[in-house]
Design goal:
Elements: H1 7-18, E1 20-25, H2 30-35, E2 38-40, H3 42-51, E3 56-60, H4 63-72, E4 77-79, H5 88-91, H6 95-104, E5 109-113, H7 118-121, E6 126-128, H8 133-138, E7 146-149, H9 152-162, E8 167-168, H10 181-190, E9 195-199, H11 204-208, E10 212-214, H12 216-225, E11 231-235, H13 240-247, E12 252-255, H14 280-289, H15 298-314
Parallel strand pairs: 1-2, 1-3, 3-4, 5-6, 5-7, 7-8, 9-10, 9-11, 11-12
Bound molecules: 1,3-dihydroxyacetonephosphate and iron/sulfur cluster (SF4).
The site of iron/sulfur cluster has 13 residues, from helix 5.
Subcellular location: Cytoplasm
Keywords: 4Fe-4S, Cytoplasm, Iron, Iron-sulfur, Metal-binding, Pyridine nucleotide biosynthesis, Transferase
Main location: cytoplasm
Length: 315
C-alpha cells in the first residue's frame, strides 16, 4: 500500500464496511491494541468471540486463539493476520502424543490449557485459561483422575492451590520459562516498594516470590483496584505494559528481563515474537482481501468445541 495510507483509519473503515470486529490480545503491539474493537486475555477473547454479532472476526493474537474463535462462532468468517503466528506452548503438545498418553492412562480425564491446537482440544474433557483454571479444576469431582497439559508450570501451580494431584504434561512457554528469581530480586532491590506480578506460566520459584499471580487480566484488575500502589515489577510478556500504562498513567511498571546472564545483565527479549507478527499492514490486508481465513476440520471441530463450551459454563 501507498505509504500515505492511514492504516488505522482504513482498518476502522473496512470494519464498518464489512461488519467486522478486530479482537486483540494484550501481548500484541500497542498500535494493534489501539486499533482493535476489543482487547483482552484468552478468556475474555473467547467469551467475546462466542457472542459477537459481527460477520467477520479478525483475531490478532496467535493461531490457537483464531481456532478457538472459529470453534465458538462457526458461522462467522474468522481471519488471522498471520497464519505463522504460532505458540511454543501449543507446539509442546502434539495431538498424537496426547492420544498415546491417554491410552497409557485409562480412566483419566484431560484438562487442557487453552494454548493448544483444536486437535488437542478434541481429545480434551475441559479447557481452562490461566484466568479460570483454579475455578474449573475445583469444580471437577474430587475423585476424578486428571491429566493436565501442556503447561507444566500452570498445572503445578493449580495442583498446589487445589490440593489435586493431576498428572502434568511437560510443556512450557519459551517467554515465561525464562523469567528468573534473580532478575526479580535485582529489580526489587532497586525498587523495594514495587509489587511483583507474575503470570502463572512462570516457574514455581518465580511464582513463589510474586505478590500477585494470575492471567494478564488478573494483573490489570489488580493495578486498577490498587490505586495506592505506584510501582510494579511485571513478569510476563512486555506487551501487557501498554494497557497497564494506559489504565494507570501515573504508575511505573518495570518489566522483568527474562534471563540474567553470567555478568548479571538481563537481555530485553521478554517478548513473544508470534504475537508481534500482527502488524497494522497485515490487519489492513486481511480485512481488505478477507484472507487468510482460519477453518477447523469438521471432524475435529465437533469434539473440540465441547470442552471449550464446558469451560465457559463452569467459569
Ligand atoms: P492470558 O490468558 O493470561 O492472556 O495468557 C495468554 C498467553 O498466551 C500467555 O502466554
Ligand atoms: Fe504462546 Fe508463550 Fe506466546 Fe503466550 S507468550 S502465545 S504461551 S509463546
Amino acid at each position: 500500500v501507498d505509504e500515505s495510507v492511514d492504516l488505522k483509519k482504513e482498518i476502522r473503515r473496512l470494519c464498518e464496511e464489512k461488519d467486522a470486529v478486530v479482537l486483540a490480545h494484550y501481548y500484541t503491539m500497542g498500535e494493534v491494541q489501539e486499533v482493535a474493537d476489543f482487547i483482552g486475555d484468552s478468556l475474555a477473547l473467547a467469551r467475546k468471540a462466542a457472542k459477537t454479532d459481527a460477520k467477520i472476526i479478525v483475531m490478532c493474537g496467535v493461531h490457537f486463539m483464531a481456532e478457538t474463535c472459529k470453534l465458538l462462532s462457526p458461522e462467522k468468517k474468522v481471519l488471522c493476520p498471520d497464519l505463522t503466528a504460532g505458540c511454543s506452548l501449543a507446539d509442546s503438545c502434539k495431538a498424537e502424543d496426547l492420544k498415546a498418553f491417554k491410552e497409557q492412562h485409562p480412566g483419566y480425564k484431560v484438562v487442557s490449557y487453552v494454548n493448544t491446537t483444536a486437535a488437542v482440544k478434541a481429545l480434551t474433557d475441559v479447557v481452562v485459561t490461566s484466568g479460570n483454571a483454579k475455578k474449573v479444576v475445583d469444580s471437577l469431582p474430587k475423585d476424578e483422575k486428571l491429566i493436565f497439559g501442556p503447561d507444566y508450570n500452570l498445572g503445578n501451580y493449580i495442583n498446589s492451590v487445589t490440593g489435586r494431584d493431576m498428572l502434568l504434561w511437560n510443556g512450557g512457554c519459551h517467554v515465561h520459562e525464562k523469567f528468573s528469581v534473580e532478575a526479580i530480586v535485582k529489580l526489587k532491590a532497586e525498587h523495594p516498594e514495587a509489587v511483583v506480578m507474575a503470570h502463572l506460566e512462570c516457574k514455581a520459584p518465580v511464582l513463589a516470590v510474586a505478590d500477585v499471580k494470575g492471567s494478564t487480566a488478573t494483573m490489570l484488575d489488580y493495578a486498577k483496584e490498587h490505586k495506592e500502589t505506584k510501582e510494579y515489577i511485571i513478569a510476563t510478556e512486555a506487551g501487557i505494559l501498554h494497557e497497564l500504562q494506559r489504565c494507570c498513567p501515573d504508575v511505573t511498571f518495570y518489566p522483568v528481563p527474562p534471563e540474567v546472564s553470567e555478568g548479571g545483565v538481563g537481555c530485553s527479549c521478554n517478548e513473544c515474537e508470534y504475537m508481534k507478527k500482527n502488524t497494522l499492514l497485515k490487519i489492513y490486508n486481511t480485512l481488505r482481501y478477507e484472507l487468510p481465513e482460519v477453518t477447523v476440520d469438521e471432524s475435529i471441530a465437533k469434539d473440540a468445541v465441547k470442552p471449550i463450551e464446558r469451560m465457559l459454563e463452569l467459569s
